[in-house]
Write a structure and sequence with these properties.
With 734 residues, the chain is an alpha+beta fold. The protein folds into four domains: 170 residues, 2-Layer Sandwich (Beta-Lactamase), CATH 3.30.450; 153 residues, Beta-Lactamase (2-Layer Sandwich); 183 residues, 3-Layer(aba) Sandwich (Rossmann fold), CATH 3.40.50.2300; 159 residues, Heat Shock Protein 90. It is 45% helix and 19% strand. A five-stranded antiparallel sheet has the order 2-1-5-4-3, with helices on both faces. A five-stranded antiparallel sheet has the order 7-6-10-9-8, sandwiched between helices. It has a five-stranded mixed sheet with strand order 12-14-15-17-16, with helices on one face. It starts with 8 loop residues before the first helix and ends with a helix. One of its GO terms (cellular component) is plasma membrane. Its EC number is 2.7.13.3. Its main location: membrane. Keywords: Kinase, Phosphoprotein, Transferase.
Length: 734
């Protein structure tokens, strides 16, 4: 509705707009609109806003006399007009309709509550308009003429309509801002409380933390009762920001006996394990003499009590109460209190169970250490036999580069593959977190697939036909880690074979498509159900399947496929027409130009090394020691071997090496101890020490360097890396 343009209206609207625009607080907004209306237009301005339950609540009764304002607001909260009374604030808010009339007119005069209220303040005429913003009724605003004797003309009502429209929008904005700010504060309060509770392992500290979190931020009072081991209820804290007031409440509580059957009492909440909201001035709480006396003594208004339940066990109850602040407990307040109660219960339970938890923690740490030690030992034991194999292959290549080339390459690939698998075993967490280190180089996916077929041959032996290969004539190049990409294809082939009958078909296709390299593994096997298809690449998805795997679950291998492919900047997808209709897994990687391919390295010819370079190898694995010694002799070194620490120290009487390669897992005393003894022996002055071991964890390397080793190498070490390391330490090319 457009406001009439008579003198003063524009100034009034401008004043209203300025006042409303300057506030994001609902209470400030209410007073701003009231000050515009009183006394310029009317003697009184009343505003009701609907609460969370949709019930109008008097928020403002404004008069130029502050004493009258306070009295009117207090009376209005005690005496409410019936919502069906036409012309009442409640009626206008409920029906979203305006009303202009006299308080002497029926039906307003017929309502005893409304009649007594208006007569007390000499109210004569009123105009009530609903406050509506964005199609939602926020409440109602009533403008009243009383002692001034003025009347409300049509143009006054039009102006009030416009002011109400602007006020409703401002209130809606202020309420939205207040709600957002309140939510932020609740989350901040919850986060701070959670942090404090998580740090506390003392019952008394936990009780005080929860109480000081709630008072005064949320409520005026906080009480917590706990059950002892015998199930007897005890009041543990009754908290108020005024300690003296809290002491008086405790003293009165000792005199009073609240009925355990009173709904909302602490005993009732503990027994029923249900939260309860109530008001002290309303039944059933007002009917209990003890609670009524408490209300009278401390002006308590509303409360919310929640059970403290942790891990299925009731520990006690928590109650918050509103009193002198005049606040109520809204839905969001109760939700916050309930959440805090749940966290407090867990914190209290944790505090009671701290000793058991500490014991369990120590046991878990011991088990974790045992697991790490076992994996380290297993890795050491697996790497030890690989070391002489790798060294022997290097010797064969250097002595006769032209013989058994293909066989040596196969063995070399398998040794590298086994070494990487051992690394995976010792670093599972890195794999599951996608932190695997990739050795990137130009790779032909046709070669990757061929290697994968070769490595998975054993699983195809019992099948009717080997995997079908569909390879292009030209290279399909990507920048990647050949071993990891081979692992990707191997995992897909193993998965296909696992879920495809022996008579079924498995095919592998490599292609270039739109600047991308594609590897596709397709089978005619069991297929994948629609419910499982989105999850096949997730970690441990098989844990949700039956133990016999008959429900189509897939394993960790596909999760590793996804992580490795994504680390290569690619993507992987699974598709299936349903159970019993086969499946298709497609890996897509960024392609590179075929010219980026590198020529495979031929075995290096023996290098010319200066004669007389003296080395010592200390290893209880005779095969590993002798093959490594022979390799070093081929490049011109003088090498002596020892099988344990004592033998190595005795050897120093007749042989002074420039560098010693020490195994760590030696009999008698380990390589760390031997390194310490050698560093303290004047016969080894200037000698370099290299740890050559199957222990390959980060802390193994750190421990070796701390023991004054110059370098730490993990078996099986590639010959080129070994030679580079020795050359760097000795300053002599190998």
């Amino acid at each position: 509705m457009s406001a009439p343009q008579h003198p003063g209206i524009l100034e009034l609207l401008a004043s209203a707009s300025s006042a409303l625009a300057g506030s994001l607080d609902p209470e400030d907004t209410l007073h701003a609109i009231a000050r515009v209306i009183v006394p310029a237009i009317a003697d009184w301005c009343r505003i009701d806003l609907v609460d969370e339950a949709g019930v109008p609540q008097r928020r403002l009764a404004y008069h130029s006399d502050p004493d009258k304002s306070r009295e009117a607001l207090a009376l209005a909260r005690q005496v409410r007009a019936l919502p069906e009374t036409v012309g009442s604030m409640a009626w206008c808010a409920k029906h979203a309709r305006s009303h202009h009339g006299s308080f002497d007119d029926a039906p307003a005069a017929a309502d005893p509550a409304l009649r007594g209220y208006t007569q007390h303040f000499g109210m004569r005429e009123h105009y009530i308009v609903p406050l509506v913003a964005h199609g939602r009724t926020l409440g109602a605003m009533g403008v009243v003429q009383a002692e001034s004797g003025r009347s409300l003309a049509a143009e006054d009502c039009a102006l009030i309509d416009e002011l109400a429209r602007r006020a409703a929008l401002a209130l809606d904005n202020a309420s939205a801002y207040a709600a957002a700010e309140s939510a932020r504060k609740r989350l901040e309060l919850l986060a701070n409380a959670s942090s404090a509770l998580a740090r506390s392992l003392d019952v008394e500290d936990t009780l005080r933390t929860i109480a000081t979190t709630l008072v005064p931020a949320v409520a005026d009072w906080c009480r917590i009762d706990l059950l002892d081991d015998a199930g007897v209820q005890h009041r543990r804290i009754s908290y108020h920001s005024d300690p003296q007031r809290a002491e008086r409440a405790l003293a009165l509580a000792r005199e009073l006996q609240v009925s355990p059957d009173a709904r909302g009492s602490m005993a009732w909440c503990i027994r029923e394990r249900e939260p309860s909201y109530g008001r002290f001035d309303e039944p059933p709480v007002s009917e209990d003499p003890a609670l009524r006396r408490f209300n009278e003594a401390f002006g308590m208004r509303a409360f919310y009590v929640v059970p403290l339940v942790a891990r299925g066990r009731t520990l006690g109850a928590l109650r918050v109460t509103q009193a002198e602040s005049g606040r109520d407990l809204g839905e969001q307040d109760c939700a916050l209190i309930l959440e805090l109660g749940q966290r407090a219960a867990l914190a209290l339970d944790n505090a009671h169970a701290y000793a058991d938890a500490d014991t369990a923690r120590r046991q878990a740490e011991a088990a974790s250490r045992a697991k790490d030690e076992f994996l380290a030992m297993l890795g050491h034991e697996l790497r030890n036999p690989l070391a002489p194999i790798a060294t022997a292959l290097e010797l064969m290549a250097r002595r006769d580069a032209a013989s058994h080339v293909e066989e040596r390459r196969i063995i070399e690939r398998q040794v590298r593959h086994l070494s990487r698998l051992i690394d995976d075993l010792l670093d599972v967490s890195r794999i599951t977190q996608g932190k695997v280190e990739l050795k990137r180089e130009p790779v032909d996916l046709r070669v990757v697939v061929a290697h994968a077929i070769e490595q998975t041959q054993p699983i195809f032996k019992g099948r009717a036909a080997p995997a079908e290969l569909r390879l292009p004539a030209g290279p399909v190049m990507v920048q990647g880690d050949a071993v990891r990409l081979t692992q990707v294809v191997c995992n897909l082939l193993v998965n296909a074979a696992k879920f495809t009958p022996a008579q079924g078909r498995i095919a592998v296709r490599v292609a270039l498509a739109g600047g991308e390299a594609v590897v596709e593994v397709e089978d005619t096997g069991r297929g994948i159900g629609a419910d499982l298809l989105p999850q096949v690449f997730e970690l441990f998805v098989q844990g949700r399947q039956s133990i016999d795997r008959q429900s189509g679950g897939l394993g960790l291998g596909l999760a590793i496929v996804r992580m490795l492919v994504e680390r290569h900047g690619g993507r992987v997808a699974a598709s299936s027409d349903g159970e019993g209709r086969g499946s298709r897994f497609t890996v897509t990687l960024p392609a590179i130009e075929a010219g980026a391919a590198t020529v495979a390295n031929e075995p290096a010819a023996p290098a010319n090394a200066p004669s007389g370079l003296r080395l010592m190898i200390v290893d209880d694995n005779a095969d590993a020691a002798e093959t490594l010694a022979e390799l070093l002799r081929v490049v011109g070194c003088e090498v002596r071997c020892a099988g344990d620490g004592d033998s190595a120290l005795r050897l120093l009487d007749e042989y002074r090496p420039q560098l010693a390669l020490l195994d760590i897992g030696l009999p008698g005393y380990d390589g760390y101890e031997l390194a310490t003894r050698m560093r303290g022996d004047p016969r080894t002055s200037g000698m370099k020490l290299v740890a050559l071991t199957g222990y390959g964890r980060d802390n193994d390397r750190q421990r070796a360097l701390a023991a004054r080793f110059d370098e730490h190498l993990v078996k099986p070490v590639e010959a080129d890396r070994l030679f580079r390391t020795l050359s760097g330490l000795l300053g002599v090319p190998l």
